[in-house]
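Methods: example folding runs. The two proteins below were folded one after another, and each record is reproduced exactly as written to the output file, sequence line first and structure-token line second.
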Amino acid sequence: MAQSVPSTPPHTQPSTGKKWKECGQIKTTPHVEEPSGITTHPNGDIALTSDWSPVTVFSRNGDVKHVIQGSPSSILDIAISPSNKYIIPSEHGINEFYIYDSQGVLVSTTPTHNIDNKPSRPTSVAVDSTGRIIVALGWDGHKTVSIHQPDGTLISKYETTSSPYNLTCTPDDKLIISFDDNTLQILSSSV
């Protein structure tokens, strides 16, 4: 009798890439419950956002280094600039994003407006290799992405086809945006 060989389901492929092994684990509670956004600092620190807590920065060993005082809670995303500043979209209902230095001190607050210049709440932030801040404004059906100087000054904004939800920049400064209609768009910089 021939042995049957289990087949790989059609929706999964065997891994041919790098194999990962656990090299550490950090317990985030009681400092952060239900993390929602994460970024790493060039020195290895880990910054977490949460629906319930302000941004908390852990060392790579898991020690709490600092809490970004005054940072909003109920935030979904965080980015870090090449100059080591934390970029944080506002909490629910506030139409702005915040820039904090590497020690968690507020540097500036920048208001956000959609393509029609109406106040709009950010859903996601990213930073490209030059330090430009890219903000998705997709709450309440808004369809705008805005691009800012590293200090928060608006450079430009453009209308998207759907509401942008999350965005990130690749190392070669391509912008990847996820939309509420389950699509992704990849853009190269023209600014």
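Second run, written to the same file directly after the first:
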Amino acid sequence: MTDLPIRKVLQKPDMAGRMIYADFVVELFSTVAHQEETNFWWVLSVDGSSNQQGSGADVILEGPNGLLIEQALRFSFKASNNQAEYEALVAGMLLAKEMGARSLLVKSDSLLIIGQVIGEYQAKDPQMAAYLEYVRLLREAFDVFELVHALREQNA
């Protein structure tokens, strides 16, 4: 309890929440700043899926000092499995870029997406070609970028 001006701020849940968020961001980015000194590999695991009930994606980004960021996305549009896989990859790469990652190792269980990104397969479908072009553009944000196949059993 306090009767100082900060009291008014702390009594408003919205403002208190913003302060907690600000503290979180400061702490998180001080960790990221340390990452740049050690040239740490960030590890991104992505998985997208689609079925009769809808489509979505899971993204897990592992950073320095045990930092772990998980996102579960549900799409408000119909997507094929391949589109969902690309959406997961794009969301994860944007997150890694925003966190300041310079070296990124991506794990995906989609052989098609991996093959297209590394140039083994062509993207003949116009939507897949657009996703591929965007991923290639995002790839330039990283000094080092590697995409590897994760077996479905290991991609839980």
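Comment on the second run: Residues 1-38 form one domain.
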